[in-house]
Amino acid sequence: MAALGWLTTRRRSATARSVLAGEAAAEAARKTSRQLEREREEAAVEAEPAEPDFPVHGDTEAAAFFDLDNTVMQGAAIFHFGRGLYKRKFFQRRELARFAWAQIWFRLAGVEDPEHMQDARDSALSIVKGHRVSELMSIGEEIYDEYMADRIWPGTRALAQAHLDAGQKVWLVTAAPVETATIIARRLGLTGALGTVAESVDGVYTGKLVGELLHGPAKAEAVRALAAAEGLDLARCAAYSDSHNDIPMLSLVGHPYAVNPDAKLRKHAREREWRLRDYRTGRKAAKVGIPAAAGVGALAGGTAAALALHRRRR
Fold it and tell me: Residue 63, SS3?
């Protein structure tokens, strides 16, 4: 019996120790659980964005305005359009060289040159004079597929889609002809486009503009007019551009973005703590806005041709 009693005591002691171990483990689990919860809360606070979610879903009094050239699309739409018209024999090689030189300057310098833009405007107006609007619209659809579709910046396209997904309207705002801009907007699934309006009578271009080129301050006026007509609150709207020429438009809205910015716009944006987005690749591309790798060879060839043309003129 003594032996049996000894066994019973040991068994009870083992059970007591098991209970003690279990209770200690449970208490430790609760402590570590609370500690882990605190760590998760702290991590969540640190991970919170510095700014609220944007765009705001369902805010229909807000909209987004996107510059086109070098913001949504690599290069300038008017020059791509000119290439397409040259291919269809709308004008001669001399005019093509003027378009090409202006495009090369734009791609290398990453800024819009007012003289080049004026030259492009005059050339385009003289080229389309006497043609039907419907004819140019049909050709514009083909030119988009040939020269523009592959030049859309995916990053900027995603920004526009975010506004659309939030239930907001998205507009292109560009100095390009409104017909060309409208084609691009429709192909990208955007709401519409503000662009330069060329005068037409009975559906035929006269070779004149209605007003002036939609550039610089004119863009801001167009956005202001559209916002009033659409019942938009500009303080809740967003605008996106690469060019310092669009500072008037960017300054109108509560959410300005510098996208693939030129040097002047980058400096201006940093001083005012505007948000920056750069979708170009490579160090040089980030500085001057030219395509990396694949595009360099094409630009080099184009530059050589333009310089040769310049020498011949001299």
Answer: strand
* Residue with token string 């995603």: 158
Average the pLDDT over 293-303 and give the result: 31
Residue 311, Cα to own-chain centre: how many angstroms? Answer: 37
Distances 231 to 210, 224, 286 between C-alpha atoms, Å: 25, 10, 37
Which residues are designated catalytic? 67, 69
- Give mean pLDDT, residues 168-173: 97
3-class secondary structure, 94? helix
Residue 308: the pLDDT is 36
Is residue 128 predicted with pLDDT exceeding 70?
A: yes
Q: Where are the alpha helices (DSSP H) in the chain?
A: 2-47, 77-87, 93-109, 114-128, 133-143, 154-165, 178-187, 217-230, 247-252, 263-271, 283-288, 294-313
Work out the pLDDT band at 295, boundaries 50, 70, 90.
very low
Banded pLDDT at 100 (limits 50, 70, 90): low
DSSP letters, 139-181, are HHHHHIIIIIGGGB-HHHHHHHHHHHHTT-EEEEEEEEEHHHH
Higher pLDDT, 25 or 65: 65
**Exposed (0-12), middle (13-18) or buried (19+): which is 217, by Cβ within 10 Å?**
middle
Please state the pTM of the whole predicted model. Answer: 0.69
What is the Cα–Cα distance from 310 to 314, expressed in whole angstroms? 6
Task: Give kind and range of the element (H or E) at residue 67.
Answer: strand 63-67
> What is the crossing angle of helices 77-87 and 178-187, to 10°?
100
Distance CA(197)–CA(218), nearest Å, equals 12
- The residues, ordered by sequence, that sit 6+ positions from 124 with a Cβ below 8 Å of its Cβ are 78, 81, 82, 177
Is-contact 183 148, C-beta < 8 A? no
Is residue 260 a contact partner of residue 269, using CB atoms and an 8 Å limit?
no
